[in-house]
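Hey team,

Filing this mostly as a record. A colleague (T.K.) asked me to run one chain through the structure pipeline before their review meeting, and I want the input and output archived in the tracker in case anyone asks later how it was produced. No errors, nothing strange. Just documentation.

Input sequence:
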Amino acid sequence: MTATDAVLGAPAERREGREKVAGTARYAAEYAPGRAQGWPVPATVARGRVTGVDTAPALALPGVLAVLTHENAPRLGDPDDPTLAVLQSPHVPHRGWFAGLVVAETLEAARAGAAAVRITYESEPHDVTLTASHPEAYVPESANGGFPAVAGHGDPDGAYASSAARLDVEYRVPPLHNHPMEPHTSTAEWDGDRLTVHSSSQGTTAVQKELARVFELPEDRVTVRAEHVGGGFGSKGTPRPEVVLAAMAARETGRPVTVALPRRCLPAVVGHRAPTLHRLRLGADDEGRLTSLVHEVTTHTSRVKEFVEQAAVPARVMYGTPALRTLHRVVALDVPTPSWMRAPGECPGMYALESAMDELASALGADPVELRIRNEPETEPDSGKPFSSRHLAECLREGARRFGWEERDPRPRSRAAGPLLIGSGVAAATYPVLVSGCVASARALPGGGFLVRVNATDIGTGARTVLAQIAADALRVPLDRVRVEVADSGIGFAPVAGGSSGTASWGSAVHEACVRLAGRLAEHSGPLPDEGVVAEADTSGTADAESPFARHAFGAHFAEVTVDTVSGEVRATRLLGVFAAGRVLNARTARSQFIGGMTMGLGMALTEGSTMDPEFGDFVERDLASYHVPAHADVADLEAHWIEEEDDHLNPMGSKGIGEIGIVGSAAAVGNAVHHATGIRFRELPLTPDRVLTALLEHGHPAGTLGV
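Output structure:
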């Protein structure tokens, strides 16, 4: 075996890992010495308009340089995203909308200045409450991603009415927030009419284009860099207000300016997973084969911008049925604009669908694993296309073997240990294979090394490392001879790190550039010139071309939980996932992504949820003291495995995305395990102790008694 034979798939260590643990990795707030600091002033009414601004108390404070409001802020061009039209109007569309920005010498002075600004408002009536029967609910033209809002086939109502087994259930997923470790931050600096920005973003190209648009500049006069990003989970997939505020303040003060959003501002201005109300109707024959599937979703959007969580879309992929209907409805409310959050659509949609499948299995007395396998489709139900590969049944069977599913007593409340009820559950997972065009270059250097440049963004996933592995594999050289430069808009177009599409998109361009370079080197004789030999690639129109195949990753989640009948606390004692995600390119970073997603799904199931205050119109949980995310100690045993899957219809690497498949289905597996433990079906997340204990008492199980 040569040094290059196992470069793809090898558990190579992250290239930036040492910088991060040593504290030398620089994030967006750590550039431009001598920079000023900006602190936003959020509006305090649920809806209305600013009627007066008194900035004098703030400007009188030591160190305060400027206060920007709609009265004096620079006029911007029309943004492509209306949420970026900051300080352009007295209108307040929702609580937390930015009404001002204080710029000062220090962060402390900016914060004090923001507290000193006096703003008066005229309030207007507001509505922030989502209900399935809301009179203003409508069917949009499409859901996110361009999916039709309504899709299906056959006669689902007629088939349901004549089914031997019928299930009609509703589920509720609350608003959820991304809360990355590094808040949304940008540092901006002007040099004449040239703008340079360091931004905590999942994609520099998108930020560059929007800044050029709003400041009316040619794109080549805007440079955006995102060398290190401390997480995003979708919330940094598009430009956010802080980058516009930083550039605006830097232009006004003539100084570099950093705007790092306070965490308590994030729920109102950087997006959230919209709440989703689900109704599912499943019809089946006596053997458990689906005869009808209806999934209807109602969600909210803001009045600023339409964003429709595509939560009914996974039902178009998962199971074979002769009759199917999926429908999205949306209500525009006076709420912050929802946006992307890890596995948008699939995450809440599969929670509801996989919970309903578990309910159907219980009603039929069927094994939940076998019921899913029994309903495997021959082709993708929505499009009729053949699957490029679909190994869901293998994931379910392998997961059941590893988990010890055969030893499970299917009867609810059949296991106990003292005051603890013990249960186990299963759920399936799916996520589409997405890919976009991208540009990349590869250069052979005289010293024997190689430089690969691609405008990818490493948000903590190990993108630098995996791209170097792809390059080394294509060049047939050892990994340590490849250097990778990323996250600079000057390199050229690249899509965002989102939709589990980054590696496929960037990697396809890197692979093509390296293959071309290898060809040129094979034809080259003699020493390399000082500048080396370079090859470039642009995969637009090829990597993102329409495929005749339905391309998806699949997986299976298994969970074991304990439910404390004294406190109502649910603990996950085991989580196990098995995934079919094409060729795994780095075993170490892949496992990290899988278990990260599974843990995030655990938080969705047990601890995470935002409460919209109907009177004040804002989210109550605005920091990590009140919005509870799981820690390492919250799951004692966490395993991620994958099956070897070969698929020639994906990309040159044969890979599928892995960043989001881990969260899809995880919450449903936990919820199904809680039902198995307690015999009680919970249909609203999260399963907090108060909710669980109340249900135990309502079902006649006094605290501390088992009644097994």
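Quick notes for T.K.: The longest strand covers residues 290-302. The longest helix spans residues 502-523.
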